[in-house]
Amino acid sequence: MKALRLAIFLLFPFTALHAQNDLLGELNKLDSNTTVPVEATFKSTRIINGHTVETVKKNHMDFRISHRFGRLNSGSYQLYGLDQATLRLGFEYGLTDDLMIGVGRSTEQKAFDFFAKYRLIKQTTGSKVIPVSVTLFASSAVRTLRPLTEEEIPRTFQNKLTYVYQALIARKFSEKLSLQITPTYLYRNLPELAGEERGLFSLGLGGRLKISKRVSVNAEYFWTARDNSGLPYHDSMALGVDIDTGGHVFQLHFTNSLGMIEKQFIGETTGSWGKGDIHYGFNISRTFSFDKRSKR
Q: How far apart are CA 171 and CA 184, in angstroms?
């Protein structure tokens, strides 16, 4: 009897290990036969200024407050920009899990913007691997600012309009790192400055590095394909931090762009990082659910 007990005692670890390996093998086989969508490439629908591949879920509304202060190099009299402020309020709604619409109003140029986003391709792993997510974005903006001087020629409604088209292409490389590239075409019916072309191509690069469960570091840069000689414009660049509190997402950042819509931060950024023309700002996102099933 003692010999039997000793044999069982010695064989038990090997038996348990063999059963565990069989279970892991079955799980791996199940994973390899299942297509799994990659979730949460980015935490928000924005990297900083620019959009991400993420969309608002069906029957959910995202209320966004975006704020930019004045330039840090404005001096102590302006409290290093804190005496000045630019604001955008936005409402974004998910018609489906892949299609969302949005509207916003900015104090800069008193502009109204309208947009739609559609998630065309989702990154997946498993039996069918799709390496990237692709979301299509289209927007229009209308500038309602009145002429500032008597010499300024009033714009017709048609000449107040701007259009933007983007393909948002992103990949989540790991739980910590996500990168995105954003080819962009911007068209102004009437540019702000004489001699500027109506059409403008741009390429955006952005990313997110997660440093803890609720905190990440974000960065983005928009290169514009134009000759800047004689024009006061610079490429837009921004660095920031995302903080997820559960119900809200706070985005704190520094950028050389005052405007918060594509027309402004891609086409009309006048600040230069090299000269200290940097704006401190933040975005606050709060999502509300109108899905009856989520309320049960």
A: 18
Q: What is the DSSP string of 68-133?
A: EEEEGGG-GGGGGGTT-EEEEEEEEEESSSSEEEEEEEETGGGEEEEEEEEEEE--EEESS-B--E
Q: Is 293 helix (H, G, I), strand (E, B) or coil?
A: helix
Q: What is the mean pLDDT of residues 242-270?
A: 90
CB atoms within 10 A of CB 70: 20
Q: Reply yes or no on whether the pLDDT at 183 is more than 70.
A: yes
Indicate whether 28 pLDDT > 60: no
15 pLDDT band, cuts 50/70/90, is very low
- Write down all domains in the chain, each with its CATH number in brackets: 40-295 (2.40.160.40)
Measured between alpha carbons, how far is 234 from 246 in angstroms, rounded to an integer? 36
| Tens of pLDDT, residues 74-91 | 888 888 888 888 999 999
* Residues near 18 by beta carbon (within 8 Å), at least 6 away in sequence: none
Q: Which residue has the tokens 């079955």?
A: 26
